[in-house]
Amino acid sequence: MIDTLLFSFAPAAVWLQVILLIIGIVVVLKGADWLTAGAVGMAERIGVPQIVIGLTIVAIGTSMPEFFVSLISAINGTPDLAVGNIVGSNIFNALLIVGTAAAVAPIAILKTTVRKDIPIAMFASLMLMGMTLDQHISRLDAAILFICFIAFIWITLRGARKDMQANHEATTKAPMPMAKALLLVVVGLVCLVLGSNVFVDNASAIAHGLGVSDAVIGLTIVAGGTSLPELATSVVAARKGNSGIAIGNVLGSNVFNILMILGITGLICPMTISGITMVDLSMMVVSMVLLWLFSFTKYHIERWEGIVLIIIFAAYMGWLLK
Fold this sequence. Notes:
The chain is an all-alpha fold. Helix content is 80%, strand content 2%. It has 13 helices and four strands.
């Protein structure tokens, strides 16, 4: 029934598949942008503080491409693509995005980030590795992930309230009209559903045509495409000197990807995976460990450390595509 409600189309011609794949990426990214803008506008209109918006709505909004791609992949019977998208996106975020942002401008890291945020992201990565040892994500596994996500949101909001009490900032920005905010949310969601379905369908068709597994296509093309919002946000933030946004964007996305996206996806559709290897899962964990080690030294990620992260990412991609 669900399949009949979702647009699904992959032409026989490979060049058309590539064009539709690119169109799917563009539609998904634009949909995420509109959804986030509309959600922020709604929150501001009803008086929710900016810091809470940034820690919750915006972070979840930038993870929506991964969510819809993984959910539709699982529903359509390609769980390797669903999980590969999350694992690949997290590796992409920690190695390439942070590496590129640091190469553009060294990233300053807060002590609370090193002591709390990065360890939480590492814990989520280790949880996923442990749960996939039997090559299956059951509804119980998914429920545990989602409960951890709720706990993470509660901890984040509690910390946000303390920060607001310590440093209250008034905003003079005029809030977005509610009608416009609602329209952006609706249009954004429609674009995400349709764009994700077109993207997944054609990515699978191209992968199968080239003899590439769903796992590899999920770890590379799909993961890279759905992580483009984080890449753009982090690089621009680093160039403007907003290093907290650059690193916070990556960490929040990685936690949401595992706990929220796989939690909800697994509750709706339990997944049996076969193409995601221990090398892939280990690389996801190692990338977070490297991020923590580089952050722990002087609470900065220097340019040379960013370059090291990029080289490791390139080596991993080379191994995947060999």
